[in-house]
Design brief:
With 407 residues, the protein is mainly α. The chain is 77% helix and 0% strand. Helix 10 crosses helix 20. It is globular and about 65 Å long. The chain starts with a helix and ends with a helix.
Length: 407
């Protein structure tokens, strides 16, 4: 048992080291590769096995799909931004809602309906266009990251909630409805910690609201098509998002009459090599972390210390999420264990576990949305995550209180 404790302790030290290096502005991809070596050593992985896991992490189908999806989304964003569509969308939205604060939260919220890995990068220029000089870069990062995830990764299109519902043998809609109260609480928290710090801007309506709505929907149409096509193809192919985004990107290139020279320039602008390196570093680290067996030992350690079952409903999902940064990962890692401990007896137990895991995904430096957002706004990733952790405290206390009430 002591070996288990030491392994988990050393893994935690690696994550702390990650945060320290991030504060010193090291490239996250490089940090993750350093952590991978450290992890392979403490887990006593044979060299060939470690190399195999690294190769699998760097060139797995999920890694390549992630890079492709981000490339397509950033291409669409670049075309929409440079053609003035984003500015038109933002200006019309501000006139519709009559508030630059509300508009700043709404854009990432709407785009958050689409479960795209690293998708927070899509809404960054929209938040920038809306807020401009009315708040600092740190707060822009917070608003974009927080409201992108206002659905708590629990909207019915997200694979994490679909898997959770399947494991619990309930409908996705039922699981989603149990998460809605937490989504509303999260919206209030986001306003208090983020939107309230945006200086109010006087919004002058230059046209009827109905006309502004029409202009907004016209500018947003490419995004609507991506979401609609994704939903339509979801049960047809495993490449639904890639096909949807790729088709819209090609359509935009044709409609906007891009020359070959302009296309090459857009490709260079849309997806810097630095981000590819970051993605590979993160995916390699997660592959080695999962395959090393360190995380699998966590439940045994907790049980050996007699930690109450109800506490495991929070600790296991949080730990699984913090060490993976992906909702479907912590669901697949921890829900099968928690179901045997009684999580399926009450959907509110499942909701508590799901939210605890979500908080872990938001607080970890392994979450690509946080990395992309901080990179766009040229703000500190460490600072962003600290603000996120503070803002998550009320939600964390609420799920603890709920767990105490229903246990």
């Amino acid at each position: 048992m002591m070996d288990i404790f030491i392994n988990i302790l050393l893994a935690a030290i690696a994550l702390v080291g990650t945060v320290i290096l991030l504060k010193k502005q090291f490239n996250l991809g490089l940090i993750m590769l350093i952590d991978t070596v450290f992890l392979a050593v403490i887990a006593r992985l044979p060299a060939m096995k470690a190399l195999e896991y690294c190769f699998n992490g760097a060139f797995s189908g999920s890694t390549l799909k992630l890079i492709l999806i981000l490339f397509l989304i950033m291409m669409i964003e670049n075309i929409m931004r440079n053609s003035g569509m984003i500015k038109t969308m933002v200006d019309s939205l501000k006139e519709i809602v009559g508030s630059n604060r509300l508009a700043a939260g709404m854009m990432p919220t709407v785009l958050g309906l689409l479960p795209s890995p690293g998708g927070a990068r899509f809404s960054c220029p929209m938040v920038e266009e809306i807020t401009k000089e009315n708040t600092d870069h740190s707060n822009k990062s917070f608003i974009n990251y927080w409201f992108r995830h206002i659905w708590l990764d629990g909207f019915i299109l997200y694979p994490g909630v679909i898997l959770a519902a399947e494991l619990l043998k309930v409908s996705v809609i039922s699981m989603f409805l149990h998460l809605v109260p937490f989504m509303l609480i999260s919206a209030v928290i986001g306003f208090i910690f983020g939107l309230s710090k945006v200086k109010k801007e006087e919004i002058k309506r230059t046209r009827p609201v109905a006309q502004s709505v029409k202009i907004f929907l016209t500018a947003l149409f490419p995004v609507i098509v991506v979401i609609a096509a994704y939903i339509s193809l979801l049960n047809v192919t495993g490449f639904s998002l890639e096909i949807a985004a790729g088709s819209v990107m090609i359509a935009l290139l044709v409609i906007k009459r891009y020359s070959f020279k302009k296309l090459v320039q857009t490709v260079r602008e849309a997806f810097p090599v630095k981000l590819v390196f970051i993605i590979i570093g993160v995916m390699v680290f997660k592959e080695v972390l999962l395959e090393s067996g360190v995380i699998d030992e966590l439940p045994a350690l907790m049980n050996s210390y007699g930690i109450p079952v109800a506490v495991l409903f929070i600790l296991l999902p949080f730990a699984g999420a913090f060490t993976s940064g992906i909702t479907i990962s912590y669901v697949s890692l921890t829900f099968p264990i928690l179901i045997t401990l009684g999580i399926a007896d009450n959907l509110w137990f499942a909701s508590v576990a799901y939210i605890a895991g979500f908080i872990g995904t938001m607080a970890t430096p392994l979450h690509l949305c946080a990395v992309m957002t901080a990179d766009f706004f040229k703000s500190s990733l460490g600072s962003l995550l600290r603000r996120i952790m503070v803002a998550e405290i009320p939600l964390f206390l609420i799920i603890i209180l709920l767990l105490f009430i229903i246990s």
